[in-house]
Specification:
The protein is mostly beta strands and about 650 residues long. The chain has five helices and 38 strands. The chain has a 22-stranded antiparallel barrel.
């Protein structure tokens, strides 16, 4: 049965759950959703290894950014809309956009794209700035450790991006826009479906000449990103189906270097660096199938996925560095429903990561290294009328590190029809990356093959409260986490050459998260989020983690759907960062000012198939830095047309 039970991973399969034709596939009504709807509970694809899960039964903290949210806010870079999710901190510079959940590092957040792990095995994390929002896409964010389900990288949580399938959004749709900084963006998709099959093909381009990102700089920092993706599924026989998904992403862009002249007044600052640029090429794929037995009571899934990422940087004289990262993963998931309210799941993952430093000068070792890991997962779920319970345990067998066991337990109880309490606890791990283990450039960054994985433990409690017959929903969560064996960069005397090590001290993260979703009537809706974070290491605040982050989005839609408008306000509090402005290259701490961004977007219906739209980003032309000495973009204006048939 297992041999015949070729099935895709439950984390991928769940997004194609069939819903009535007159219902939206995702309406975001989870406990901390960005968009409320009274018609249908939201579905979490990534909340379980075996099946799609109603978000109002999830025992942790989740947020769904629906396709309506992405469309109304005219999101092009997925990283931007994540700023509206409580507990998420985004820091972006040319060539690297990082996202942190609840104070965890960027490489401690698992990113899934159509169920595929997309982090670069070489760098140990994913540059989320390369992820463009396709027409009809949606995003899930699970906060808190999910290593019991997914293994390494999920200490802070999971961000799951899903493109629309042919069944989710059929027909042809396209958009094109242009504006400030010679920006031209475009996207097109075709979705088709039949009784037992569906397919979708999408292409997206984001291109801009940019503007200077150095203090007082004159060099524009441009970027071009191209994405082609496809997915499809077919039911060959009742209870037996196949599916596939693929994606190619190419990103080219400029960046500036730091001034390394210790005698210069700009030493350690970002300065105009003509000729410096980068190229990223990434190929992702997944194939699999699924078989259902016992009238759907017992399912078997087997999937295989790949990720192949190449990155090169260039200076005025040619290629200056490069890296290669590959991942091959096979997953088997068997899920059994004991009764209507009980389910048991077993999953097994085999994963091999390979990486190589493709240095053109021979300053670093070009030996191809690899790590293999086997993960065994057990998951139990109970869903009652008022009470929900979940428990998961995972044992990882790694050929380089000691075996690790992680867990997650959670419970939710609906006190009344409008009040639900929830609590969960769990642990997580993060394995060291290539450059941490083996170094980057000899004489500049020395690797440490004796590093051990980072380990965390955390817990949270929360409440979800409805008012006004469900038109208003408020959620509040308190969380507490501890991280051991954190990997950090040391600069030991007398040479002060950078090398990583595991900390002997403990990092702590705690805070509160609030979200509000309200249907105000008259076509108006309001969504707001606020998070307070206390993240410290040895009593010192962690860098690039603002203590306070807040956002609010006010949306209006005309009753006849002829026009809409959205006002978005985002605030980042003061944050600490590291600056290499000391000749010893030992970093010093700098405080970055808080900033508030205002965006406005609007759309007008011209015909049944054609719409005109426009938006202004950073309306008040705020000048701010997300990372020390990197100046972020000022006001931009874009207008465009969209069509759907």
């Amino acid at each position: 049965m297992a041999a015949l039970g070729l099935g895709w991973s439950g984390a991928v399969n769940a997004q194609d759950a069939e819903l009535p034709d007159d219902q939206p596939q995702d309406d975001g009504s989870d406990p901390e959703s960005l968009y409320l709807s009274a018609t249908l509970p939201a579905i979490l694809v990534s909340g379980s290894r075996s099946e799609d899960l109603e978000a109002n039964r999830f025992t942790g903290s989740s947020t769904t950014v629906t396709r309506d949210d992405i469309a109304s806010r005219q999101v092009r870079d997925v990283a931007e809309v994540l700023r509206d999710v409580p507990g998420v901190a985004v820091s972006s510079v040319a060539g690297q956009t990082q996202v942190r959940l609840r104070g965890a590092e960027a490489n401690q957040v698992l990113i899934l794209v159509d169920g595929i792990e997309v982090s670069d095995p070489f760098a140990g994390e994913f540059d989320i700035g390369t992820l463009q929002a396709e027409i009809g896409s949606r995003v899930e964010v699970l906060r808190g450790p999910q290593s019991a389900l997914y293994g390494s990288d999920a200490i802070g949580g999971v961000i799951a991006y899903q493109s629309a399938s042919g069944r989710d959004l059929s027909g042809f749709a396209a958009r094109i826009e242009g504006g400030t900084n010679d920006t031209i963006n475009g996207s097109a998709r075709l979705g088709i479906d039949g009784v037992n099959w569906d397919a979708a093909l999408s292409a997206t381009v984001v291109s801009t000449d940019g503007e200077p990102n150095a203090r007082g700089g004159m060099r524009d920092i441009g970027r071009d990103s191209y994405t082609v993706s496809g997915k499809g599924s077919v039911e060959l026989a009742p209870g037996f189906s196949l599916r596939a998904a693929g994606r190619y992403v190419k990103t080219e862009g400029d960046f500036n270097d730091s001034d390394f002249d210790t005698a210069a007044p700009t030493f350690g600052l970002i300065i105009d660096s003509p000729g410096t640029r980068f190229e990223n090429d990434a190929i992702y794929g997944l194939v699999g199938a699924r078989i259902e037995t016992l009238d759907g009571g017992w399912t078997h899934d087997l999937s295989a996925q790949i990720a192949d990422i190449d990155r090169d940087t260039f200076n005025a004289f040619g290629r200056s560095s490069g890296s290669e990262g590959e991942r091959f993963k096979v997953s088997y998931v068997s899920a059994f429903k004991l009764a209507d309210a009980h389910s048991l799941t077993f999953a097994a993952d085999w994963e091999r990561e390979r990486f190589r430093n493709n240095d053109p000068f021979g300053f670093a070792s070009a030996t191809r290294q690899q790590i293999e890991n086997v993960g065994l997962v057990g998951e139990y779920r109970y869903s009652g009328e008022r009470f929900d319970l979940s428990a998961a345990i995972r044992h990882d067998i790694n050929d380089r590190f000691a075996d690790e066991t992680t867990f997650r337990v959670g419970a939710g109880y609906r006190i009344t029809e409008s009040t639900r309490l929830r609590a969960s606890a769990g642990s997580g791990i993060k394995n060291p990356g290539f450059f941490e283990l083996f170094g980057f450039f000899d004489g500049l960054f020395i690797g440490n093959e004796d590093l051990t994985p980072e380990k965390s433990a955390s817990w949270e409690v929360g409440v979800d409260q409805d008012f006004a017959s469900g038109d208003v929903r408020v959620s509040a969560t308190y969380f507490n986490a501890e991280l051991d064996d954190e990997i950090f960069t040391t600069f030991p005397a007398p040479d002060f050459i950078a090398t990583p090590a595991n900390r002997d001290t403990q990092s702590t993260q705690s805070g509160v998260e609030f979200s509000l979703g309200a249907d105000l009537g008259g076509g108006f809706s309001l969504n707001a989020a606020y998070a307070f974070l206390d993240a410290e290491e040895g009593g010192i605040s962690e860098v690039r983690r603002p203590e306070s982050i807040a956002s609010a989005a006010l949306n209006w839609i005309a009753s006849d759907d002829t026009a809409s408008a959205t006002l978005i306000i985002r605030h980042n509090g003061e944050t600490e960062d590291l600056a290499f402005t000391d000749p010893s290259f030992v970093p010093v701490r700098e405080t970055l000012d808080d900033y508030t961004l205002v965006n406005i977007a609007a759309e007008v219906k011209l015909t049944e198939s054609l719409r005109a739209f426009g938006r202004i980003e950073n309306l008040l032309d705020e000048r701010y830095e997300q990372v020390f000495s990197f100046v972020s973009p000022g006001r931009t204006v874009l207008v465009g047309l969209s069509a759907q048939f």
